[in-house]
Amino acid sequence: MFTLIKTDGSARRGRMTTPHGAIETPVFMNVGTQAAIKGALDAGDLERIGCQIELSNTYHLHVRPGEEIIRKLGGLHRFMKWEHPILTDSGGFQIFSLASLRKITEDGVHFHSHVDGCKIFMGPEESMAVQSALGSDIAMAFDECVANPATRPYVEASVARTTRWLERCKRTITELNAREDAVNPGQVLFGINQGGTYDDIRVEHMKRIAELDLAGYAVGGLAVGEPTEVMYHILDEVLPAAPADKPRYLMGVGTPANIIEGVRRGIDFFDCVMPARNARHGHLYTHEGVINLNNLKYAVDDRPIEEGCGCPTCRMHSRAYLRHLFRAQEMLACRLAVTHNLYFYNKLMADIRDAIDEDRYDAFRAAWVEPLSRRI
RNA sequence: GGGAGGAUUCCCGAGCGGCCAAAGGGGGCAGACUGUAAAUCUGUUGUCUAUGACUACGAUGGUUCGAAUCCAUCUCCUCCCA
Fold first, then answer.
1. CA-wise closest residue to A234 among A194, A199, A195, A196
2. H helix intervals, A250-298
3. What are A331-371's pLDDT values in tens digits?
4. Span A206-212, mean pLDDT?
5. CA A52 → CA A14, A18, A43, A140, A192, distances in Å?
6. Any strand B atom closer than 7 Å to A140 CB
7. How many whole angstroms separate alpha carbon A349 and alpha carbon A256?
8. Distances (CA, A) of A18 to A22, A40, A83, A277
9. Mean pLDDT confidence for A15-32
C-alpha cells in the first residue's frame, strides 16, 4: 500500500506500508545481497545507520544457503534478524552480471553457478517461488537486465519476453500468497520497465506493464554504461507513463547526484552497491565531495570523515586512523567506512524528504548536485 | 682452519654476454567501481634540463665492439666438515 503524501514539482513524498512496517519515501535501500551488508554489518548496524529497508538477492540466496533452509528458519527477516521491510531482487540482474555463465530461453534462464558450476534454472516461476520462501515484503519481477549497448531488434525481443515473464510472475505470486504455508502472504510484486536506450520501447513497455496493476514499478537496465544524461532523459520520457499512485523504483542507482536527479523526476525508491563498495575501497562521501582515504594527504588528518556527521564512525574516529586501517588491510576499515557511507546515503534521503516536505526541493537540488559529485 | 653457495632497483626474487632501467610478487603512489562472481580491478613506481641523456645489479680492476651476466682480487652473508 503506497500513499502519496505530497509533491514538490515532480518530486514525491510518500509512504509505503508493508507487513514489516512503513517506509518513508524517497528511500534508499541498503544492499545486502547475501543477507549481509558487505563490510561486516548486521541488522543491528542497519538500524544504527538509519536503514528503512534492506535488499537481498534471489539468485545468490538460492545458490547459498538455498531458500528452503531460510524458509525452515522462518524466512529471511527472522534469519538475518531484520524485522523491518525487505525487498528481494529477482535474479534478473544476474542475467546481466553473470552473462558469461547463462543462456536465456523463453522459459527462463539456465545458469552455471558461479560458486560450483552446477546447473541452475531460474524462470519467473522459480524466482517467485524463491522470493516467496524468503518471505520478502517486496518481490521484484524476473526480468532481463539488458546490457548496453544492445541493438534495437535484441531489445524489442528481450522486452517482449520480459513482459511475458512479468505476467507469469504476477500469476505465480498470487498463487503463492494464497498458500497456507506462505512465509509472507502480504508480499507484493513490482514490475520492471526495460527497453535499453530506446525511448519509444521504454514508454510502450511502461504503458503495457502499468495495465497489470502491480504494487510498484521499477525502471531497470539503467546505469549500465550509457551516459548519465541518457539515463535522465529516459526517466523524463518514461515516468509520465508510470501510474502516479504507485511507487517508482530506479534500480541500481546510484551516485548522490543521480539520486537527487531521480527524485526530481519522480523516483521513490533507490538502491545501489556503490556506497558500500566504494567504502570498502576507501572512497568516503562528504557534502564537499568524495574523499579517497587511501591518499597520502590523509595520513595525519585528525578530522573525522566529515565534521558534524552523526554516524558512529565520525563520532569516534579520524581520517588518519581509517587510512591506517585501510593500508594495513584491517577488516575494521571496511566496517567503519561502510557504516559512514550508508549512514550518509540514508541521511541524504532524510534531507531529501525534508526538502520536499518543505517545498524547497529545487533549491536543495541546486545546492547539492555539484558538491556531492566532486572528487576531493 | 678446509669446502660449498650467495650478494640484483624500497623489500623478496628472476635474469646468467646484446631484445635490461632489469620478469614476477610485495610495498609505495594514483585511478576505476551504479538491481555486488568486487575487502576487487587498472595504471604507475631510478634520476634529469626528458621521443634523449645520465646513474644503476656488493667493491675494485680486467676481458669484450658490448657485462647484472665472463675472469681476478677484496668485503660481507649462509650452509657443511674440523
1. A199
2. 256-264, 274-280
3. 999 999 999 999 999 999 999 999 999 999 999 999 999 99
4. 98
5. 13, 11, 11, 18, 22
6. yes
7. 9
8. 6, 27, 11, 28
9. 98
Distance CA A262, CA A108 (A): 31
> Per the residue annotation, which of A8, A137, A143, A271 is the catalytic one?
A271
Residue A215: name the closest of A28, A6, A16 by CA: A16
Residue A347: CB atoms within 10 Å: 18
d(CA A143, CA A124): 8
- Contact residues for A74 (Cβ-Cβ < 8 A; gap 6+): A183
Radius of gyration of chain A (CA): 20
Distance A276 CA to B32 C1' (A): 15
- Give strand letter and number of the nucleotide nearest A92 (CA to C1'): B35
ipTM > 0.85, yes or no:
yes
Residue A134: per-residue pLDDT: 98
Alpha carbon distance A10, A70 (integer Å): 40
Residue of A8, A45, A89, A137 marked catalytic: A89
Region A302-312: mean pLDDT is 97
Q: What is the pLDDT of residues A224-265, one digit of tens each?
A: 999 999 999 999 999 999 999 999 999 999 999 999 999 999
**CA of A278, C1' of B38: distance in angstroms:** 10
Q: Provide mean pLDDT across the span A28-41.
A: 97
Q: What is the DSSP code (8-state) at residue A143?
A: -
What residues contact A346, with CB distance under 8 A and at least 6 apart?
Answer: A28, A30, A49, A50, A51, A52
A256 touches strand B (CB under 7 A): no
Q: How far is CA A181 from CA A120, A133, A152, in A?
A: 25, 9, 43
φ/ψ of A224, rounded to 5, equals -120, 30
**Percent of chain A residues past pLDDT 70, beyond the cut:** 100
Q: How confident is the model at residue A206 (pLDDT cuts 50, 70, 90)?
A: very high
